[in-house]
Amino acid sequence: MTQSKNFGFGEDEMMLRDAARKFFADNCPPDQLHRLVANNPDIHRPIENKWQPELWQAICELGWHLVCIPEDCGGIGMPLVAAVALAEEVGKAAFPSPLLSTFNSTFVLNACGTNTAKQTLESIANGRAATLAITNQKGSWEPLDTDVRIDNGKLTGSAWFVQDASKADLLVVSAASNDGVGLYVVNTSATGVNIIADGIIDLTRDQAHIEFNHVDAVEVSAPGKGGEAISQAMPAILAVTSADMVGAGEWLLQTTTEYATTRVQFERPIGFFQAVKHPLVNVMIEIDQAKSLTYAAASAYHEEPERADILARMAKSRASDMAAFSANRAVQLHGGIGFTWECFVHLYFKRQMHNRSLFGDGEYQREQLANSLIAPL
Length: 377
Prior knowledge:
The protein has 11 helices and 10 strands. The chain is an alpha+beta fold and about 375 residues long. A 4-stranded mixed β-sheet has the order 1-4-5-8, with helices on one face. Strands 2-3-7-6 form a 4-stranded antiparallel β-sheet, with no helix packed on it. The chain has a two-stranded antiparallel sheet with strand order 9-10.
């Protein structure tokens, strides 16, 4: 099977993207974002989760969280490319919300295919935010790596590097038993759930490690089937994360280019000089490469599932490298002001660095690609 024209990005997806672009321009411009999340430069400041729940409610009213939820669960059932288009705009606005974490949870629950998973998707469709708790203390997102166990229907242990934990209502947890790794859903407010905030560089997100002390859980994937569901969903998760980096890279490029046309040195805008022009062109090229791979991965998820994992890891690898390069060039080309807290660039720099490592950086993805493509030979 070949991919659809324009990666399946049609009129509906374009309208969705344009609506998101306007929403973020109206509700989360960079100056407002900076006042919200970066009003305190003190390195010893307490860990805080700064976001606007009312904007999350507005997003739910617009139905963005429904994009990848099947129609029979109360969703819209659009293809992955729609979620990727939204994720790109989220990254361009560096928007603090549980939307992308909810998307990722949706992908995993869709892969489970059980009645309880469908019931959980219906809860998400009703506006409950969700996030994945599938990572062990070593930072591994591999499907069978978990520090949580389940015995007699109760979870014990810890999940690490949980994204948007303080914004979520539901946790999708991977837990091991004697019969293998399964997936389970718990409420973040459940008795025995202890959310411990992590201090991270990304001011637009929150992260936590979560302790489970004999917590009652609902099984959404049978023991021994959880790893399979995570593996099936991982290409979509990687594509959404890559789209976030593409969007942030586009903001960094546009902002730096505009600065280069207004900042005058030696009686000329600094954009006149090749030492500025060439790095900006290189950033543009890297963004285009990452974007093409990201949308190709999103399209393949439905149309060429046998290639989805390979394309998604290619996208995450390219996007991770682009994230570091675009952030580095933006700071350097802003000159002395680029290093200051008042400059908006640092919000995107830090988001790019966080996304770069999330679900494995470029080097990790290339290692996985080598194992898939070379080892069998």
